[in-house]
Amino acid sequence: IMHRTHIGVDQDFKNLLKQGVRAAISDGWGGSMIATELQDILFGTPAPILGTANLGVLREDEVNIIIHGHEPLLSEMIVAVAQEPEMIELAKSKGAKGINLAGMCCTANEILMRHGVGIAGNFLQQELAIVTGAVDAMVVDVQCIFQSIATVAECYHTKIITTSPKAKIPGAIHIEFDEHDALKSAREIVKTAIENFPNRKGNIGIPDNETVQIAGFSHETINYLLGGMFRASYRPLNDNIINGRIRGIAGVVGCNNARVKHNEGHIAMVKELIKNDVIVLTTGCNAIACAEAGLLVPEAAAQYAGEGLASVCEAVGIPPVLHLGSCVDNSRILIAATAMVKDGGLGDDISDLPAAGAAPEWMSEKAISIGQYFVGSGVFTVFGVTWPTTGSKEVTDFLFKDFEDMYGGMWAFEPDPIKAAHLMIEHIDKKRKALGIDKARERVLYDMAMRRELV
Question: pTM (2 decimals)?
Answer without folding.
Answer: 0.93
